[in-house]
Design goal:
The protein is 28% helix and 33% strand. It is α+β, with helices and mostly antiparallel strands and 172 residues long. It has a domain at 2-117: Aminopeptidase. Strand 4 (81-88), helix 3 (97-111) and strand 5 (116-122) form a beta-alpha-beta unit. The protein is globular, with a radius of gyration of 16 Å.
Length: 172
């Protein structure tokens, strides 16, 4: 197992993990699988804002899990806040890869001088909720019945982790 930055060559593997989550879980509130073309825009947005895409690969280079973060809200005063996500390949869940990736994303966010990491987690995803609490994320609210998927209403929990960075925040 190795932690690496994921470039566009990983797009097909990332897409497979995304689409499995869309079709079989409430980790993403999408209905239809994403297209290969959608990955271009996804990577463009990550690169434009210098947001990391971090992966865990096996000895053969197969992507086992990945994580990233991006803009929380698009107004200037939110510039120190990001929202992250982590996805683990369906056959690799339970191996601690989410924990490894979350730790790496936190380190990266501190290096990039972010102050607040947000997580939007489906309230039924007890494993992700427990993982985030183990890193010190605090519950900050629930939006009830915000999504509808698999024939039921979904509640979305928000968790946040405040970082010690940046040392000298500025406006503008």
């Amino acid at each position: 197992m190795k932690i690496i930055p994921c470039d566009r060559t990983f797009a097909p593997q990332i897409l497979d993990i995304f689409n499995d989550a869309i079709l079989h879980s409430t980790a993403l509130y999408d209905y239809k699988p994403r297209s290969p073309e959608s990955m271009k825009a996804w990577f463009d947005a990550k690169e434009k804002s210098n947001f990391p895409v971090i992966g865990i690969v096996d000895e053969a280079g197969k992507l086992l899990a990945f994580g990233s973060y991006g803009t929380f809200r698009a107004w200037p005063a939110y510039k120190y806040t990001i929202e992250h996500s982590i996805y683990v390949e369906k056959d690799q869940r339970g191996n601690g890869y989410g924990k490894t990736l979350l730790g790496e994303l936190i380190k990266n966010a501190e290096v990039q001088n972010y102050h607040c990491m947000m997580a939007g987690i489906d309230s039924s995803n007890t494993i992700s909720l427990k993982l985030h609490r183990s890193f010190g994320f605090k519950f900050c609210g629930q939006i009830k019945q915000v999504g509808y998927k698999f024939g039921r209403w979904l509640d979305l929990d928000f968790y946040q982790l405040l970082l010690k960075t940046p040392g000298e925040p500025t406006e503008g």
